[in-house]
TrEMBL record:
It comes from Rhizobium sullae (Rhizobium hedysari). Pfam families: Fer4_5 (PF12801). Keywords: Membrane, Plasmid, Transmembrane, Transmembrane helix. The keyword Protease does not apply. Residues 36-71, 132-155 form the 4Fe-4S ferredoxin-type domain. The keyword Transmembrane helix applies. This is 4Fe-4S binding protein. The chain crosses the membrane at residues 37-60, 81-101, 107-127, 139-158, 235-257, 264-285, 300-327, 339-358, 378-396, 408-429. InterPro entries: 4Fe4S_Fe-S-bd. Coiled coil: none annotated.
Length: 430
């Protein structure tokens, strides 16, 4: 995987950009572009929702390099600043915005900066902190927060049998079993969810208490979510996945973006400042290629559009979640964050189907059309919306209110769910 990754990442950056007549199957740049953004990115997300974080534990070249460096590195203790739980969310927002500003999906050089920079940072962190651990993956990787959320709905996980663990307690004088090296630092004995587990399988069978098992995809969100959900996850689900990421995937086809850009241009001209309308920056700051250039006005409009999408998602989701928490017996932060977990299916489906646009567009450019793909994507997001609604109803049931109150909570939280489904359906079909 490391070899494939390096070839696909560095190779295209060393050859000329493709011409309009080049295809995925006869041009290395187009092929790498399709492999990274048309296949890898959307389908790794899908696989995480289906079988957990197998990608992270078995296939990810970045994680493997980080652990390899950690085996040979300084092995220092992990400092407190590095354990700040907001890093994955902040890193995801930054890479999403930077990727859009530099057109990472279209050009190989910004892909080298984003992916290559992340890989170098993973190696550096591995070489400095932890011994044979994946400190980068656990605390800093920009996609670990999103993968952690998606793994919660995976029907496959490593199940820990508490009583069996205790029964296997070694008797005094006997040799204890060799400890498992859980590279992403999951507290195996008390593990109750799949969010942090990389599915590497190293602990499988340990003390006869851990095994790969099926479960209901609702189980972790409904039964465990109340204890593990936190503010960063709520922010990631609502403001980032349902807001900023949606904006980042939709801006290029949005009439609102064009209006916003025109409005900024008018403000500049009214203020007697015309240079931002034509000024550009180097490619590694703002898209700048022959025949494809973003001006400062384009960049500013893009930033405002993405931030506005995040704000709109907050305005839609947070009051609805608050109302739901209150209806369950008075305001409670725990209930608020627990209810937010119910939005994971609809947020994840929007992200996956939105990213499929990259796959669909690249194939369309080469004359390959997938029939009914837009209808199928709309249907998928709609189905995920119903799933989210069912989760809201189930979570409400755990706090024991009447059926009437549960329906009230579902009605309140249906607002952001319907809004998300509507925004995506409009994007796919409109
Ligand atoms: S060692 Fe076990 S708990 Fe840790 S990542 Fe691997 S499978 Fe998950």
């Amino acid at each position: 995987m490391i070899a494939v990754y390096l070839v696909l990442l560095l190779g295209p950056a060393l050859i000329p950009l493709p011409a309009r007549t080049d295809f995925i199957w006869n041009n290395a740049v187009r092929f790498a572009q399709f492999a990274f953004w048309g296949v890898w990115w959307p389908f790794v997300l899908l696989s995480t929702a289906l079988v957990g974080r197998f990608w992270c534990g078995i296939l990810c070249p970045e994680g493997a390099l980080s652990e390899w460096a950690s085996e040979r590195g300084a092995g220092r203790a992990i400092p407190a600043w590095l354990k700040w739980p907001g890093w994955p969310t902040v890193a995801f927002i930054m890479t999403t915005i930077y990727g859009q500003l530099t057109s990472v999906y279209q050009y190989p050089a910004p892909a080298v900066v984003v992916l290559g920079g992340s890989t170098l940072a993973a190696i550096a962190i591995g070489a400095r902190y932890g011994k044979a651990k994946r400190v980068w993956c656990r605390f800093l990787c920009p996609v670990s927060g999103v993968f952690g959320l998606l793994a919660k709905i995976a029907p496959l996980h490593f199940k820990v049998d508490g009583p069996a663990w205790h029964r296997a307690q070694p008797r005094t004088g006997t040799k204890p079993p060799v400890a498992v090296n859980c590279a992403p630092l999951v507290p195996i004995k008390t593990m109750r969810g799949a969010g942090g587990c990389h599915m590497c399988g190293r602990c499988s069978g340990y003390r006869g208490a851990i095994r790969l098992a099926w479960r209901s995809p609702n189980e972790e969100i409904v039964a465990v979510g109340g204890e593990t959900a936190n503010g960063w996850e709520t922010f990631l689900i609502t403001a980032v996945l349902m807001g900023m990421a949606t904006g980042a995937l939709q801006w290029s086809g949005s009439a609102l973006y064009v209006t916003l850009k025109a409005q900024i241009a008018i403000w500049c001209l009214n203020a007697g400042v015309s240079w931002p309308l034509d000024a550009s920056l180097p490619w590694w700051m703002l898209t700048n290629y022959p025949g494809d250039r973003m001006t400062l006005v384009d960049g500013a409009a893009l930033l405002i559009f993405i931030a506005g999408a995040g704000l709109l998602a907050c305005v839609t989701c947070l009051p609805a979640l608050s109302a739901g928490a209150i209806l369950l017996g008075g305001w409670s932060r725990r209930r608020f964050h627990h209810l937010a977990q119910a939005l994971i299916p609809v947020a994840a489906a929007g992200l996956f189907c939105g990213l499929l646009s990259l796959t669909v567009t690249q194939l369309r450019m080469d004359g390959v059309r997938i029939p009914m793909i837009d209808e199928v994507r709309s249907l998928l997001v709609g189905t995920a919306g119903f799933w989210s609604l069912y989760l809201v109803y189930s979570i409400a049931g755990r706090y024991g209110p009447s059926r009437f109150a549960r329906l009230g909570v579902s009605a309140a939280i249906s607002v952001p769910i319907v809004a998300t489904c509507g925004v995506w359906a409009l994007f796919f079909l409109g």
